[in-house]
UniProtKB/TrEMBL annotation:
It holds the Pfam family YjbQ. SUPFAM superfamilies: YjbQ-like. InterPro entries: UPF0047_YjbQ-like, YjbQ-like_sf. NCBIfam families: TIGR00149_YjbQ. Gene3D superfamilies: YjbQ-like. Coiled coil: none annotated. This is YjbQ family protein. It comes from Undibacter mobilis. It comes from the Bacteria. Belongs to the UPF0047 family.
Length: 153
């Protein structure tokens, strides 16, 4: 079966919009920030372009993941614990035993995302959401910089 490319659309980049989202986490786990991203795009009057998110921390991360079944988040948290367990012989433990594993998990997931924006809407799949993942046990206040680069409606 040959690949099928949709018709190419063009939009002149007219603007760059930015805002900072503060997220208070409750400790290890996922926080859905999809609605904040959608609200940002609405306030920016987004048309066609790209949504960018950048997390200003090294012990938390961003991901696009399933938003329908919370068991997925539980299993992903368990998988990350297996990949970077606290009980490993880490050298860096300046902020406690969950510090270095949190850095490894953030490196695995990353701290940046980009999502196409079409007609002012995130072009996410049906079951996709945007999440901040806290890798530390204690609650933290995290900052995510949102940007939209593109045209306005």
């Amino acid at each position: 079966m040959p690949d099928r490319l949709s018709p190419i659309s063009e939009a002149a980049v007219q603007s760059v919009f930015s805002a900072t989202l503060r997220v208070d986490t409750h400790g290890t786990g996922f926080t859905d920030i999809t609605f904040a991203a959608r609200d940002f795009l609405a306030q920016a009057g987004a048309g066609e372009g790209v949504f960018l998110a950048f997390l200003r921390h090294t012990s938390a991360s961003l991901t696009i993941q399933e938003n329908a079944d919370p068991d997925v988040q539980t299993d992903l948290t368990t998988a990350l614990e297996r990949l970077a367990p606290e009980a490993a012989p880490w050298i860096h433990d300046a902020e406690g035993p969950d510090d270095m594993p949190a850095h490894v998990k953030a490196m695995l997931n990353g701290v940046t995302l980009h999502v196409p924006v079409t007609d002012g809407k995130l072009a996410l799949g049906t079951w996709q959401g945007i999440y901040l993942i806290e890798h530390r046990r204690a609650p933290h206040s995290r900052e995510v910089i949102f940007q939209f680069v593109g045209s306005r409606k």
